[in-house]
Predict the structure.
Amino acid sequence: MQCPLCPPTPLQRIPLEANLPAHTCSGCGGIFLVSSDYFQWREQHKAQRSTHLESVPSIVVTDVPKAKQCLFCRHIMLRYQVGHDVNIILDHCDNCNSVWFDHHKWDVLRNHNLHSDIHRIFTEAWQRRVRDADHRAMMEAIYREKFGSDDYTEVQRVKAWLDAHPQREALRAYLNAENPYRR
Ligand SMILES: [Zn+2]
Ligand SMILES: [Zn+2]
């Protein structure tokens, strides 16, 4: 098995976690994880999973945007944003579900306690939430730019008040009317 980024460097078998075998490249630090190994480990790991997060140390990740060929089945791997405040992209084989991690990406997922839920990242539901969050962040930036930061904060406050008000329809009509007192 050769590294997809620095051939002909051969990948070496390592224990990624206890009872989780994977393959790593001594050149670029990338890691290749086969789906069956991941799910087998996940079954065992489930019992001792903790939801408690220590403070998350920041790790600098160098993303390698180059398309990679799956080492297991030779399909081209697709790139998936992790999202949910974890700003990294993973390479996933949609054919056999193997995953490629550029250097340190596994560590970042472990720090966010996502390393035993990796398979969920590649689902349509997860990816839809990532796109929704991206869209929301883009719209927020547009509104902030258009209104200015203070007015944007104020209009959000007013909107929240209005949306929660039992007379919101009448209040909106009042606000929208140029002269609400016209006969
Ligand atoms: Zn490499
Ligand atoms: Zn594959």
Q: What stands out?
A: Helices lie at 35-45, 105-111, 118-121, 124-147, 149-164, 168-176. The first helix runs from residue 35 to 45. Strands lie at 12-17, 20-24, 31-33, 78-83, 86-92, 99-101.
